[in-house]
Amino acid sequence: MIVGFIGSGNMAAAMARGWAASANGPTQMLFTDSGSGRATALADEVEGRAVDSNENLVEGADFVVLAMKPKDLADVAASIPSPFAVMSLLGGTALATLFEQFPDSTVIRLMPNLAVETGRGVIAAAHPQESDPKVIADGLALLESLGKVVELDDSLMDAATAVMGCSPAYFAVVADALAKAGIEDGLEPEDALTMVAETLSGTAELLKRRTPFEIQVAVASPGGSTEAGLEALAAGGAAEAFEQAAISSLRRMREG
Ligand SMILES: NC(=O)c1ccc[n+]([C@@H]2O[C@H](COP(=O)([O-])OP(=O)(O)OC[C@H]3O[C@@H](n4cnc5c(N)ncnc54)[C@H](OP(=O)(O)O)[C@@H]3O)[C@@H](O)[C@H]2O)c1
């Protein structure tokens, strides 16, 4: 399976790195950019191939990944032949909008998060019921090598984006704050960040077995140090701040 990326920025790079490290990724990856040279750099890194135009990329690819910004959709669509199959990463861009541009293509709308680079990403995916089942199955199989695929109705993709597309950045804020606190108290920066990262990873596993409330209760014995920390988080409005982060990102997506 040959996958062509229109756009070679942050998310294209994360997906391409994840696929390059997977035994079940594409047989070849093609890349374009709008002139920055990022396509060549990424192609060199993942042993893919930079292509001189979007038109040539579409002609050589089984799946075309739209990995430019949503504002570039109309220009890109106008400049290429109708792709056979499209995976769109474009935030806040509904299937109906994609079909206006690519009426003859099989289209899967995706929302991956940056962790696809590690093969431990989350990929929300929406596609119309009437799509070619073989093409959809091939596309979803490719995506499964990048992490957990969650199939959703198109109407839920923005909500999914707010909780899983943006949230690696939010967890990074938490990791940075906790690591800094440890460093100020004498830990080596590398040790502090490793411990926070492994704690995040272990807590993610725990969340598959216990509810968030059960974890809080199990860690925070009455009158203990975790309880003091949770009280400080509550006083600082931490939970409300995270909720507000998701609401703000949804609002921004819907403003277009
Ligand atoms: N970053 C994330 O975590 C994330 C998460 C989920 C979804 N997304 C979605 O992924 C898409 C890309 O986001 P990003 O963060 O990767 O953006 P980015 O780093 O700004 O990359 C955009 C890429 O598109 C290229 N491009 C622009 N116009 C083009 C054209 N006409 N033909 C070919 N390439 C063109 C740019 O070329 P140059 O290199 O020449 O500028 C650049 O390589 C967005 O639609 C976003 O909604 C991103």
The major pleated sheet works out as: 8 strands, mixed
Oligomer: single chain
Number of helices: 12
Order of helices and strands: EHEHEHEHEHEEHEHHHHHH
Counting helices, strands and paired strands, the structural category is: alpha/beta
Mean pLDDT equals 96
CATH architecture label name of the largest domain = 3-Layer(aba) Sandwich
The helicity comes to 40-55%
Instruction: List low-confidence stretches.
Output: none
Number of strands: 8
The radius of gyration computed from the alpha-carbon positions, rounded to a whole number of angstroms, is: 21 Å
Q: How do the strands line up in the largest sheet?
A: 3-2-1-4-5-6-7-8
**CATH homologous superfamily title of the largest domain:** NAD(P)-binding Rossmann-like Domain
* Tally of separate domains: 2
Furnish the topology, listing elements before pairings:
Elements: E1 2-6, H1 10-20, E2 28-32, H2 38-46, E3 49-50, H3 54-60, E4 63-66, H4 73-78, E5 85-88, H5 95-101, E6 106-112, E7 121-126, H6 133-144, E8 147-151, H7 157-165, H8 167-184, H9 189-206, H10 212-219, H11 225-235, H12 238-255
Parallel strand pairs: 1-2, 1-4, 2-3, 4-5, 5-6, 7-8
Antiparallel strand pairs: 6-7
Helix pairs in contact: 7-12, 8-9
Task: Describe the protein.
There is one protein chain. With 256 residues, the protein is α/β, with parallel strands linked by helices. The protein has 2 domains: 2-157, NAD(P)-binding Rossmann-like Domain (Rossmann fold, 3-Layer(aba) Sandwich), CATH 3.40.50; 167-255, ProC C-terminal domain-like (ProC C-terminal domain-like fold, Orthogonal Bundle), CATH 1.10.3730. It is 52% helix and 15% strand. It contains 12 helices and 8 strands. It has helices at 10-20, 38-46, 54-60, 73-78, 95-101, 133-144, 157-165, 167-184, 189-206, 212-219, 225-235, 238-255; strands at 2-6, 28-32, 49-50, 63-66, 85-88, 106-112, 121-126, 147-151. It has an 8-stranded mixed beta sheet with strand order 3-2-1-4-5-6-7-8, with helices on both faces. A hairpin with an 8-residue loop joins strand 6 (106-112) and strand 7 (121-126). Helix 7 packs across helix 12. The longest helix is centred in the last third of the chain and has 18 residues, at 167-184. It starts with a strand and ends with a helix. The mean pLDDT is 96. NADP nicotinamide-adenine-dinucleotide phosphate binds next to helix 1, helix 4 and strand 6.
